[in-house]
Amino acid sequence: MDQIIDQITIKDLDQGSIIYDIDSSIIKLNKLQHWDLYWQHLYETHKLLCRAAQENDLNQLKILLSPKYHLPIDINMKLEEQWSCLHYAVMEGHIESCRLLLQHQAQPDITNVQQRTPLHIAAIKGYLEICQLLIQYRTSINLFDYQYNSPLHLASQNGNKDIIELLLDHGADYNIRNHFNLNAYDISIDQQTQEIFDKRGLYQDYQKRSFRGVHNRNDHIKNLLKLSDRLSTQVSQTKISKVEIQQVGPQDFSVLTQLGKGSFGQVYLVQKKGNTNYYAMKILVKRKLQAAGIVKYIQTERKILTYVTSPFIVKLHYAFQTENKLYMILDYCPGGDLEQLMNERGKLPEKATKAYACEILLALETLHQNCIVYRDLKPSNVVIDKDGHALLTDFGLSKELNVQRATSFCGSYAYLAPEMLDKSGHGYPLDWYLFGVFIYELVHGNPPFYERDKNKMFNNIKTSEPPRPANISDELWDLLKRLLEKNQSKRLGSKEDAEELKKHPWFINVNWQQVIQRKQPVPKATLRSENYDLDLKVTFSEQAQKSERSNFIHDWDY
After folding, report:
1. Which InterPro entries match (predicted)?
2. Which of 343, 325, 320 lies closest to 401, judged by CA?
């Protein structure tokens, strides 16, 4: 944290005269450049205010908010992405900072670029006490964000049951429908969340979702499918496409070949009957997932792929289930993953690395805008589509068929951040550390702190500086050092998230609008020609196509 300066002196550098006299009650600024300098000081001071709120530095906040402080502070001024200091305090769950800011007239209904108020964010994060505090300061319960989600929608979507109860107790309108034409009941994460509404008799005449038989996509998202145009919002990466109402089950796909096999199931290359598009069908065995205790993780993956859309995140087209298995129908990316590419070519040129890094940066930005920390960025989780673009995925089942790299026996240990080893808690800066590890590995061939001895590697991660890879630019080396900063509060991206990275000299000439539109040149993809197994027989019996209630996994079908 920068030290608060005791005074600010503004000088006319041409004349050497002092323009701002700290002892005067009136600041006389006669020249345009003097005003520019004055406003710059105000902006920098506001950044200190937001940082203090983000870090729960109450002493710093009290100094900056004191009537005796020598610069006027606008507590509701906004930074990048239109975030106010109250947004930052709420995001980190700092109720003491929230209370202090509200006491000093912070607006409880202030909105960011996604039109989200602090209450929206608290509802997503599950901060009950902060929700109570905001309501105490008369925040509006039913304001909606850029997708017309109210705080009740977001609490229901994230399964924050205590907050749902609180919002309903204070008059939240449960009939509000978002841009998908879904209300809070439709969007609820699980049956337990729905029961909150059921117990209050709020949807007595409402047609409940079907939980039986072959999945009917008309069950809980049929109103979404009435959308005829793409939603245009301030968040340019978030686009919702029109899709068709149809019943989908495993029998609707032709299996061409197996792409991968893992501990919990298989991945197949498939075509949907009636069209020529290729998809990856991920089949997971319920019994194995339940035995390993990872059903919740798989549900989280399905949920993220449903609600978060980006040009650089693998798209989920369908999700359905049978009595014993879960199915996900995903984009098929014939360029393989970046780990496979490095197995074939070795380390990548800096130019190619930058092209992939730009796209993955935007994927991470989208996740963070939706309050999601990815936590698992590495070359094997980045796949290349037919046009050569990089997409973020979690396609773990296919890895066991790949040729293993020399570092594979250590698994993901080389990608652990210092804060994960110290168990000191982590947030969005974790993804920027892993982004640094990811870029480093692409240009160097190995992660920065890799050692065959696991304990030595852990010690390197916590205490050592990374060696500089050969033949990289000074700008890239500076970026890597700032991303691999061990103190997450000082790490690049810890203050302004993706915007902070975009301003770094390594990215200075990037046209981000072209990147979003997939117009930025990328390396030509080496498309893999799969050997279709004509003898492969994957059939789905009539019984296998049925989803029995006894083994039903709620909120899977999509």
Report:
1. Ankyrin_rpt (IPR002110), Prot_kinase_dom (IPR000719), Protein_kinase_ATP_BS (IPR017441), Ser/Thr_kinase_AS (IPR008271), STKc_AGC (IPR045270)
2. 343
CATH number reported for the structural domain that contains residue 300 in this entry? 3.30.200.20
> What is the DSSP secondary structure assignment for residue 322, as one 8-state letter?
-
Token pair 């997939």 is found at: 518
Q: Whole-angstrom Cα distance, residue 167 to residue 108? A: 15
CB 462 within 8 A of CB 421: yes
Any catalytic annotation for residue 198? Answer: no
Question: Cα–Cα distance between 349 and 207 in angstroms, integer?
Answer: 56
CATH of the domain at 152: 1.25.40.20
Q: Which of 309, 385, 304, 306 is nearest to 341 (CA)?
A: 385
- Determine the Cα–Cα distance for residues 543 and 481; give it in Å rounded to an integer: 56
Residue with tokens 């019996």: 541
311 and 269 share one domain = yes
- Three-class SS of 208-246: CCCCCCCCECHHHHCCHHHCCCCCCCCCCCCCCCCCCCC
Considering the domain architecture, whether residues 346 and 413 belong to the same structural domain is answered as: yes
CB 480 within 8 A of CB 439: yes
Q: Tell me what the mean pLDDT of segment 50-60 comes to.
A: 92
Q: Find the mean pLDDT for residues 526-544.
A: 54
Most confident of 167-181, 199-213, 491-505: 491-505
Looking at the fold, whether 294 and 385 belong to one and the same domain comes out as no
145 & 58 share domain: yes
Number of domains in the chain: 3
115: its two tokens: 């039109």
The helix-helix angle for 32-55 and 95-103 (nearest 10°) equals 140
User: Which residues, at least 6 apart from 480, have a Cβ–Cβ distance to it below 8 Å?
Assistant: 436, 439, 440, 448, 466, 469, 472
Query: Residue 370 is part of which domain span?
Result: 338-398+407-516
pTM to 2 decimal places:
0.56
Tell me which of 162, 190, 198, 376 is the catalytic residue. Answer: 376
Residue 9 has pLDDT above 60, yes or no: no
3-state secondary structure 118-172: HHHHHHHHCCHHHHHHHHHCCCCCCCCCCCCCCHHHHHHHCCCHHHHHHHHHCCC
> Cα–Cα distance between 320 and 300 in angstroms, integer?
15
Say if residues 243 and 209 touch (Cβ distance below 8 Å). Answer: no
Which tokens is 244 given? 């068709």
pLDDT tens, residue by residue, 410-428: 337 888 888 888 877 777 8
pLDDT tens, residue by residue, 359-395: 999 999 988 887 778 888 999 899 999 999 999 987 3
Does 282 appear as a known binding residue?
A: yes
**Structure confidence at residue 532 as a pLDDT band (50, 70, 90):** low
